[in-house]
Each structure stands twice: as C-alpha cells, then as structure tokens.
Amino acid sequence: MNISKLEQRVLHVLAQGGAIRFDRAPNGKVVEITCFTRDGLVLADCSLEVFERLRKRRFIRSVGGAAYRVTREGVVAVRAQPDNRTGGGHA
C-alpha cells in the first residue's frame, strides 16, 4: 500500500507513543487536530488532510472520545525507521 512521506512520519510518531488530539464541530466532524510526540512536542507535518487519509485507511482510531492512536494496521503499514533519539553512538 502506498503511503506518503508525511503519512509515514505521522504514523512513525504515533507508533512511538504519540497521539492526535482533536476538536469537533457541533455536527461531530473533526475540524482541528494537533499531533503530539511521546515527549509532548507538536508535529507540524500532521495536517487535517493527512489525518483524514490515515483515519479513512483505519491506520488510526479514537476509542471513547480519547486522542487518536495508531492501530495494529498502522504499525504494520509504517516502514521501519531508525530511532533518532539514541544519538547514533557506537559502543
């Protein structure tokens, strides 16, 4: 399945423990989203368009009105990426 670089980036952040918080309009439609990393930083690459594509493909979901998290399908779809937090030092 083809996944854009932005979708990959968002799924990778979510797979590492991030979450997407959202606001709904009175009609129930999601109108604003903010993607947080596990460290609490905001991921600027996560747009409403990317969010809708991920939700439509069932790579993310919200349970009981909580923040959106990655699903098992989303974890499988994301390509393995090196963890940039480790600093890359060799022992």
From TrEMBL:
Pfam families: YjhX_toxin
Highest taxon, organism lineage: Bacteria
Family label: Belongs to the UPF0386 family.
Name under which the protein is recorded: UPF0386 protein G5V65_06930
Organism encoding this protein: Paragemmobacter kunshanensis
Native organism taxonomy: Bacteria, Pseudomonadati, Pseudomonadota, Alphaproteobacteria, Rhodobacterales
